[in-house]
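It would be a great kindness if you could assist me with a short task in structural biology. The matter concerns a single protein, recorded as an amino acid sequence and a row of backbone structure tokens. The record follows directly beneath this note:
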Amino acid sequence: MFGIGMQELILILVVALIVLGPKKLPEMAKSLGKALNEFKRATSDLKESLETDSSIKEVKNSFSSLNEDIKSTASASYPQAEPSSEAKPKTTQSSSSDESTSLKDAAAKEAEKRSTPSV
């Protein structure tokens, strides 16, 4: 168990009997047994928790790879003419304001087309 032989164990019990006395020794043994059981229970709960965490990580990785596959399939099926503004790095303030101005102009033209009656 801990590298303790039978002789060492008997010696420990005799010293404990002398120090604690015959009335306290059974109570101490009982509390020690409860403590060991609680330790075993906590250890098994920890192992179960770690196994659950590893299972959750495996599922998360599966979902991540599935998400990447879906994105790659979608981008191959529906290629975009221009990359999205989120993908472009915003290096200067003027380029981002130019983009917002062009977006506003496009939205205004679209609104004019809708409000103008077609002849």
Notes: DSSP finds two helices and no strands in the chain. Residues 6-77 form the longest helix (72 residues).
